[in-house]
Write a structure and sequence with these properties.
Strand order of the largest sheet: 7-6-9-11-12-30
Low-confidence stretches: 1-33, 40-54, 354-359, 510-518
Strand content: 35-45%
Number of helices: 8
């Protein structure tokens, strides 16, 4: 008998009703005498059936869509009532009273959970047949729950309500009103997910060694990913199939001996047509060492289901052993053999519907934080459920300025910010209204939601993004990745290495003294130890001031001791991150092209491009082009271009993540395009201006772009200096 490799538990959500899961003897008397349908969720264990262990995300119920259809004997019963109900903390009340349903009629009650389809579209459903025709599409279904733009944050579920403690084998219509006006109707529904869960376990064979997943850019794709699903079970799926992008995320767990990949997909039957072409497979890129040789690219193909079917609410586990290199071409991945499959029911979520005669006091809001990206009004993101009428008020609003200091929004702006709900509604949406920020920063707004019953207030923090915005983070130290000898580590503020901390240019001169018609040897001389010259030297933040400014010093190694001397070139060691969301008349949005050597392409066409998300080196990257044998160079020459682009390619800046406290190393810098330089000049204002988002960074007369020197109209006087500032493409968040 084969040993099962999966752990099983059962997760049941039940209701505290009558003689249920909790003691509600002291609940207050109801405000209205007529009966209601009350949702009360609590989590407990049960031994009803074997199910696969999941996490809280997989069982989360954020809101329900309740459909009640008349049982008129037709095959397409008409809709009698529809309502979206928030269930943030486990309780909600249907606005429609039980007395609204006829005592001599029976009804079908269908329940959806977490649907992303708008309530206005669902309200347009006229019959059960209409509901069965609706499909939900989630192109990033496989990344559900991850903090990725476009990824769902909860799972679509559905079920049909019933009475009693045991789910019937076949759904049936129900009597919702027995004539007792003060009693509540008690129902139950088992919610089952529309998606399937997939876990692929890849074990290391004896002949291979898994290399670093980050150093070698490991990751996975999903081919023929079913990304759409009918809302209801029992409807034949005909999903959209797509190829996912390569991913390396929290669902890609890597260790020396085992790689585990978790994904989700909607249901589909691939046994019709060509199985080999249409089946869902995971393609995994695994860098490895085999017989002492590195194989940085190895693509393996793993079908995720033995019978090439994916069913709703099922768990599919695949285990393989990799013991040899795979394919180098992603389009022709190697299929791994043998494969061990295991399939089981995924955790079900049991939800009871019902309640005590007494109405509880409660107030629930589905989110504690939300984003408003490029919009001034949002009336769909926030749901509430309350035992009494609700009010929404603004507690505070603020932003972080160019030096990372929190700044409160002035009262005139605050008066334009508001939150509201429909008067008298006990369940529904919260509308947030706020004019878009005009200072290129993210505005943070704290709302407080209260109700008349005195339930615990709920606080929601809203982050509102303008179309173009700038954030910043405090940097730590800088260096060049070529500050090393062949047999030493790179010299950084934390590691002495070869003790190289400065760089200067070697030139040949004619006669005595400097001659503008110099000959460049094409080499660099490194100043070691207590270097006190050079066109660039490693720097570190010595001290942070309350206003966000910094005291910056040059650092060098004296033996095994790091020492600093004060640098006066800049008092700002903050990294600025600019995000742009659309093309304008002044620039074209797009990722600038790079040459085969990794430098920014100097073409005129490329000069017009602006990266949608780029970061500017801080004052730790300050370059003095009048020292280090650069002062007599022709600043428009190809030689000068070679120096500055080479410097950016070798430049490294390090900061500490303010949330995780982990060190972040940025080593992918380049020269900006001409238009990117002009964007920075435009956003920084002028000398002495109090721009909120970005400090006055560029004060020299000229700056080098990949295509050549760019005149700075906002230079600090007529200093005639030519400088350069490195930038890097950054992932927009």
């Amino acid at each position: 008998m084969k040993t099962r490799i999966l752990n099983f538990i059962s997760l049941v959500c039940c209701v505290a009703v009558m003689v249920g899961c909790s003691n509600d003897d002291n609940l207050p008397s109801p405000k209205r005498a007529e009966g209601h349908i009350v949702f009360n969720f609590s989590t407990t264990s049960s031994a009803t059936r074997a199910t696969i262990e999941g996490n809280s995300l997989e069982s989360a119920v954020n809101h329900l869509d309740i459909f009640i259809f008349e049982n008129d004997g037709s095959t397409v019963p008409p809709k009698m009532h529809y309502e979206r109900v928030a269930t943030a903390s486990g309780r909600a009340v249907l606005n429609k009273a039980r007395s609204s349903f006829d005592t001599d009629k029976r009804y079908w009650v269908y329940v959806l959970a977490n649907s992303s389809i708008s309530s206005s579209e669902l309200d347009g459903v006229a019959t059960l047949a209409d509901l069965k025709q609706l499909q939900q599409q989630d192109e990033l279904i496989h990344l559900t729950g991850l903090d990725v733009a476009g990824a769902p944050q909860s799972f679509l579920m559905d079920g049909v309500a019933y009475k009693g403690s045991v789910e019937p084998t076949e759904p049936a219509s129900l009597q919702l009103n027995d004539g007792n006006l003060s009693a509540n109707t008690e129902l139950a529904v088992v919610l089952r997910r529309a998606a399937a869960k997939i876990v692929v376990n890849i074990k290391r064979g004896a002949n291979v060694e898994f290399l670093s997943d980050t150093d070698y850019l490991a990751g996975y794709y999903i081919h023929n990913l079913p990304c759409s699903s009918p809302l209801l079970a029992g409807v034949a799926p005909a999903p959209e199939l797509r190829y996912s992008d390569k991913t390396n995320n929290l669902y890609f767990n890597w260790s020396e001996d085992l790689i585990t990949v978790t994904a989700y997909a909607y249901s589909h039957d691939f046994t019709t047509g060509s199985i080999m072409e249409n089946r869902t497979t995971m393609v995994v890129d695994i860098p490895m060492m085999y017989n002492g040789v590195e194989y940085p690219k190895n693509y393996y193909q793993i079908p995720v289901s033995r019978n090439h079917k994916l069913e709703r609410n099922m768990y599919y586990a695949v285990t393989v052993v990799v013991n040899a290199p795979g394919a180098e071409d992603v389009s022709q991945p190697l299929e791994v053999e043998p494969m061990i499959y295991d399939t089981a029911d995924w955790t079900e979520v049991n939800v009871s519907v019902g309640g005590e005669a007494d109405m509880p006091k409660y107030l629930n809001v589905n989110r504690k934080e939300m984003e408003m990206r490029y919009i001034s009004t949002d009336n769909t993101t926030l749901y509430f459920a309350s035992s009494s009428e609700v009010t929404v008020s603004v507690e505070e609003a603020y932003y972080y300025n160019k030096m990372g200091v929190r700044m409160d929004v002035d009262r005139n702006t605050l008066n334009q910010i508001s939150g509201s709900v429909v008067e008298g509604e006990l369940n529904g949406n919260i509308t947030i209204t706020s004019p878009l920020p005009t200072n290129k920063t993210i505005r943070y707004i704290k709302f407080v939601v209260t109700n008349e019953d005195g339930s615990t207030p709920r606080t929601v923090l809203v982050a509102q993004y303008p179309l173009e915005y700038i954030t910043n983070v405090q940097s730590w130290y800088s260096y060049r990745d070529d500050f090393k000898d062949d047999d030493t580590d790179v010299t950084t503020y934390e590691n002495p290495g070869s003790r190289e901390t400065g760089v200067s240019l070697e030139v040949e001169s004619s006669g005595g003294g400097w001659n503008p018609t110099y000959t460049w040897t094409g080499n660099f001389i490194y100043h070691k130890g207590t270097a006190n010259s050079g066109f660039w030297r490693s720097k570190v933040v010595i001290n942070l001031n309350e206003d966000g400014s910094s005291e910056i010093g040059y650092y060098y190694w004296d033996g095994n001791t790091v020492r600093t001397s004060v640098a006066t070139a800049s008092n700002n060691a903050r990294l600025y991150h600019i995000r742009i969301t659309s093309t304008s008349n002044e620039y074209k949005l797009g990722n600038p092209k790079l040459t085969n050597d990794g430098f920014t392409d100097p073409s005129d066409e490329n000069a017009l491009l602006v990266s949608p998300s780029f970061m500017i080196a801080s004052g730790l990257g300050y370059v003095d082009s009048n020292t280090g044998n650069m002062n007599n160079m022709n600043k428009d020459s190809d030689e000068f271009r070679s120096i500055v682009r080479d410097h950016c390619s070798k430049y490294v800046e390090v900061y500490q993540d303010p949330e995780t406290k982990e060190k972040v190393v940025l080593d992918d810098w380049r020269l900006p395009t001409e238009t990117e330089l002009r964007i920075i000049m435009n956003y920084q204002g002028t000398q002495g201006s109090n721009a909120d988002a970005i400090d006055y960074l560029l004060n020299a007369s000229y700056y080098w772009a990949a295509s050549g020197r760019v005149s700075n109209s906002k230079a600090q006087g007529n200093n005639g200096i030519t400088a350069f500032r490195c930038i890097r493409d950054a992932i927009a968040k």
